[in-house]
Amino acid sequence: MRAVPIPEAMLEPAFDPAGAARDAIGAGLRAEKGLNVRHGTILTLEGINVSFDGFKALTDLNLYIGVGELRCIIGPNGAGKTTMMDVITGKTRPDSGMAYFGETLDLTHMSEVQIAQSGIGRKFQKPTVFEALSVFENLELAQKTNKSVWASLRAKMTGEQRDRIDEVLTTIRLETARQRPAGLLSHGQKQFLEIGMLLMQDPQLLLLDEPVAGMTDAETEFTAQLFKSLARKHSLMVVEHDMGFVGSIADHVTVLHQGSVLAEGSLNEVQADERVIEVYLGR
Ligand SMILES: Nc1ncnc2c1ncn2[C@@H]1O[C@H](COP(=O)(O)OP(=O)(O)O)[C@@H](O)[C@H]1O
Ligand SMILES: [Mg+2]
User: Whose CA is nearest to atom 25 of ligand 1?
Assistant: First the structure.
């Protein structure tokens, strides 16, 4: 009998959705430690189609994000940027196409909770912090998502957990506001707190939808520094219209238009592309 070589991918432990449902936290840790990024690609979208009542929001979308990359996504309103994030996070199921986190996690067959626990964190436009709780308590809650709010706040914290919160407080520059109720923070500070809450989960891929909308210039500048400091250790996908901001952070820019990739390259390259000028940047 002819020996058939077993593809390397088949030797990988497969993600087990049934097991994950039984022991979601354990599965999350296992998936994160075991995330296979052998080919240097953390996210693969291939041939993704999404339609809403016959309207095509995404059309044969192909997109690849490298490990540790900071990718910016630009494009006109309605281009499908948010829908793409919905597909990655399991909020929207594509009609067809492949979506993989690392080499082996098939995002189209995982629940939103499983996807979050496997290491994909998402920040929406509007901050969703617990306004009545302090900055510190918000981070503490984000660290213990497996418990109810009150059980989490009553549970004893380890020194290690406290150190991690301090570290994140420094990263998001809210050390001196740690005891302040989150409801009293500025809009920008609430955004930083929410990024901090994502970081408590130590995600490998962060999705950020229009993070600097409504921020002051100083806050926007700090966000740029923050994202640059997070890249390499994490992979980031940032949707943003502010070209100054995009220019200051992006390794690589993808232009979406009518649900597909119109252009990809450095910001200078895509800004010089006639088709991009036509549909997005204007003359
Ligand atoms: N749940 C939905 N139902 C119907 N249409 C939708 C839905 N979500 C998005 N769309 C449509 O899909 C297109 C892409 O939207 P979206 O992904 O939000 O674009 P972007 O974020 O690039 O502005 C838009 O025309 C929008 O109206
Ligand atoms: Mg959007």
Answer: 78
